[in-house]
Amino acid sequence: MQDNKKSSQKSGFDFRSITKTKGFSAFTAALLAIALGLIFGLIVMTLANPSKAMAGFRYVLVGGFSRFGDVLYFATPILMTGLAVGFAFKMGLFNIGASGQYTMGMFFALYVGFMVELPAGLHWIVAILAGMIGGMIWGFIPGIFKALLNVNEVITSIMFNYIGMYLVDMWVQGNATMYIASKSRTNYLPSTVQIPSLGVQGSNVNLGIIFAILIAVTLFIVLQKTTFGYELKATGYNKYAADYAGMKGKRNVVVTMIIAGGLAGLGGAFAILAPSAIAGSSMTYEPINIIAANGFNGIAVALLGSSNPIGIIFSAIFISHIQRGGSLANLVGFKPEIIDVVIAVIIYFSAFAMIMNSALAKFVKSKFGKKVEMANANAEPTTTNKEAK
Amino acid sequence: MDTIYYLIQNMLPVAIPLLLVALGGMFSERSGVINIALEGIMLFGAFFGALFVFNVQKTGINPQVILLLGMLVAGAAGLVYSLLLSFAAVTMKADQTITGTSLNMMIPAAILLFSKMFFNSDGITTNMAFYIRKMPVLGDIPVLGQMFFQKTYLTVLIGFILLAIAVIVFYKTKFGLRLRACGEHPQAADSVGINVYVMRYAGVSLSGILGGIGGFFYSVGILDGNISGHTGVAGFGFLALAVMIFGQWKPIRILFAALFFAFLRTLAYSIALIPFLNDLGINQTYYKMLPYVATMVVLAFTSKKSRAPKAEGIPYDKAKR
To answer: In chain B, how many domains are there?
Structure first.
């Protein structure tokens, strides 16, 4: 970033120095992964139904624009689970347990919504905070297992996805106030506990998205400007070096997982406490023993945003956008699951997009070769240093 | 005594998929690649196995022959799918956990997509009786015959045969030794002329074959030959990873670990038939959570002195020493 500033001072605006930064190559890598994912989706659609593939694909690409309110509403939970995954990633932890933390947060929010009587202005705030605490508890467990017992956090959080899902389903089904057995879903939430709507016609979009974006910005500041954020990233780069420098690795693991869990829990609360566009109803939860997909979509969001909180805001909105588009593609006979496949393909490619990207860059360089090299002779040493890190 | 027979007869078809998939994980991890995609590989194999059974079930071929052929189809499918992992993890040196996760996410969605388009359902429903009431000759052995060769599936027998083959390949062949070397110290293996990339491809491919077969056996032994994109294989791929860790990456220990987990799961689903436990009146959900909770307890006690392959999860780069 710094040499970026210097060179732009020299020559006003130098495009090449931007293309050399780490953030830029992460961005192009994400674009490459997205493009490959979408192409794969188009191929699948063409195989399934050649005559309608283009119409369906157009819905996937631009359909979301006609429902922008809904895009933002559905972006809220995956933005939060994306932050939960990305924040832990910064420390080198793979928090695959966002699903369980999300479900737990949702249950805590539901519990406050149904079982606790509070004044109207306060009720929804307390419910959101309860959701955060629920997620924190479910993030704390893998953290403590990792720190004290050296159990791989991936296995722990997968197991606690299942345990959390079974527990929540059992608790919901056992609670007569919450659960309507005949409809096998939860009751409608009282209006006092619903997050105030942003008033977009025909959509559920609410204050939640504003909170989510504010939280993302806060996390960005924590990561960039605080000692804790620095230690976190240092541990992520090299655990042993960080330990040697006197950073309390074990404590940081637990704290990171608690924060990550809290973020996912907030996602669950934002999702379930949303006001519905249909008057008198609200969001409901169906206890059908299925692990929340929003947790796994959070992994895609985090990877696409290269674990940067600001990047995650945009990638969450993008994923939500193609999800809405996918459900609109239903109009021409395509199943919305196509988008889940596309998302999985995007994750697959983003895992090595950086490598493909640099291979591509080498190819471009060899084509347009020497001119660029000459012009960048000054910038070259700094960038190689960065890559080495 | 009947309860014990019942538990063993029901436990074995559950234990076999866990055993095979955990053995697959062992081959992959001992070669140095973390295979978290086992869940997806299982489901992929199970889906193609079930698709094969669905297409031949009306031809009147003996069910046990169809089972064997389905097993081959499932193994081949698992192998193909696992190549995606080895390509990303070995050739492209990508993060193995992330790649595995994406492979796990892809399959349920793809199955739902496919089944909704072509079958108008969430998966494939077959109508094939694989169940064996009593095996000839073997089923007549007193006590043991009733335990192992009655009211069971052919999968159990095949599972034990595959275990024997796996043990021999793993410990008694040049290939097994080389594979293990690549998981412990790939640089050293390379220096004596072993191609680490080839061995890692082989390890992951073996886990693909075993994972695919394990998935098909799951669908045969637990879901009666059906498979659905919604419930998938219910986390068995992940449980198999836990079984593998509990078994300390060694085949015979993995067998006992698989039996242990299968016993817990069978117990959880047969509470109503065991008067003593049924009288306690504990919510059945607690029993369903039991295998997952047991995994955590087991890992908590074994992870400190874990004997994980030293080089697992680290992409091998010839240039680095």
So the answer is: 1
Query: What's the pLDDT score for residue A269?
Result: 94
Interface test with B, best of A32, A340, A349 (most B CBs within 10 A): A340
**What's A121's DSSP letter?**
H
Q: Is residue B52 part of a domain?
A: yes
- A231 plus A365 within the same structural domain: no
- Candidates A155, A341, A350; nearest CB to B109: A341
In chain A, the number of structural domains is 2
Interface of A with B (CB under 8 A): 44, 48, 94, 96, 145, 149-152, 154-156, 158-160, 162-163, 166-167, 169-170, 174, 289-290, 296, 299, 303, 335, 337-338, 340-341, 343-345, 347-348, 350-352, 355-356
Chain segment B79-91, per-residue pLDDT in tens: 999 999 999 988 8
Is residue B87 helix, strand or coil?
A: helix
The residue assigned the tokens 């809290």 is: A262
A30 within some domain: no
For tokens 């993890």, the residue is: B89
Amino acid at B135: M
Residue A382's pLDDT is 40
Predicted-complex ipTM score: 0.87
Question: A309 and A219 in contact (C-beta within 8 Å)?
Answer: yes
Residue A227 in domain: yes
Q: Is residue B43 part of a domain?
A: yes
Q: Is residue A32 part of a domain?
A: no
The answer to whether residue B159 sits within a structural domain is yes
**Looking at residue A385, what is its pLDDT?**
39
Query: Which pLDDT value is given to residue B6?
Result: 83
pTM: 0.84
| Residue B291 falls inside a structural domain | no
Name the residue with tokens 């020559």: A11
Is position A35 within any domain? no
What whole-number distance in Å separates Cα of residue B171 and Cα of residue A328? 55
Please check whether residues A335 and A362 belong to one and the same domain.
Answer: no
Q: In this structure, are A160 and A180 located in the same domain?
A: yes
Residues 210-249 of B with CB under 8 A from A: 229-231, 235, 238, 241-242, 245
Give the torsion through C-alpha atoms of B249, B252, B256, B261, to 10 deg: 40
Lowest mean pLDDT of A242-246, B3-7, B289-293, B304-308, name the range.
B304-308
DSSP of B115-161: HHHHTSSSEE-------EEE-TTGGGSTTHHHHHSEEE-HHHHHHHH
Contacts of A159 in chain B (CB under 8 A): 238, 242, 292-293, 295-296
Domain around A368: 1-8+15-25+353-389
Which of B34, B1, B282 has the alpha carbon at shortest distance from B142? B1
Averages of pLDDT over each 10 residues, chain A, 389 residues = 44 56 76 89 86 86 84 92 93 90 95 88 91 96 90 86 92 87 84 80 82 94 90 84 83 92 95 79 80 87 88 92 88 84 88 74 71 47 39
Among A26-40, A284-298, B156-170, B283-297, top mean pLDDT goes to B156-170
